[in-house]
Amino acid sequence: MQKLTDNKVNDELETIREANEKLQSSVTDLQARSVRDNLVFSGIPEHAWEDTERLLQDFIQRRFRLGYDISFERVHMVGKWSEFNEYPRNIVAKFSFFKDREFIRTNAARRFSGTKVWVNEQFPQEIEERRKKLYPVMRQARKDKKRTKLVRDILYIDGEVYTPPAGSTPLTSTAQQNPASQDTPRENNERQPLKRQRQGSTPDRPR
After folding, report:
1. Can you tell me the distance from the alpha carbon of 154 to that of 140, in angstroms, rounded to the nearest whole number?
2. Is the sign of the CA dihedral 89, 94, 96, 101 positive or negative?
3. I want to staple 130 with a disulfide (CB 3.0 to 4.6 A). Which of 69, 122, 153, 165 is the partner?
4. 141-198 pLDDT, tens per residue?
5. Looking at the DSSP assignment, which residues form a beta bridge with residue 121?
6. 31 contact partners, CB below 8 Å, separation of at least 6
7. Three-state DSSP class for 203?
8. Can you tell me the distance from the alpha carbon of 44 to that of 63, in angstroms, rounded to the nearest whole number?
9. What is the CA radius of gyration of the chain?
């Protein structure tokens, strides 16, 4: 009788644990969706009391020479300014149009060459932690001349999803748990950069 009771309790605890994991996965997925249009710019020189959006806009214009202003929903610095800061603060920018965001992201490495500025996508902390575990694997694969692509917290090597070796801590992807959450093309409010003019209003830090 006692054994049956213990088994029932264990089953109920397992059910609760699985429900909590699904709930946490859903919360993380919602957080990832909320920052999907964001990019984090690191290393742009700043001064006290500067308008952050104008600072970012001017920097992008100098490097890309677009001929029009990128439209942002919000732009803000992370943390408080201090003249004793070792590095400029990160700038988080939410783009009005996803295609503008992707245009800047995919061309940033070439356009920002020769500067100490770099750009990263923004993710919830839980996904960032999983991505950090994949960075060494991705770097080694690139050294081995293999094609790599890191999509959120899923690493593709030569077109195949990377699976951690047996015995290592599994990397449970929220994108794998929620297939509908993976990025899909959006048709509304999207347009290619450089089509027409318009007016508008983070791996390791290099040493």
Report:
1. 16
2. positive
3. 153
4. 999 999 998 888 889 999 999 988 876 654 555 555 554 444 444 444 444 444 433 3
5. 39
6. 124
7. coil
8. 12
9. 21
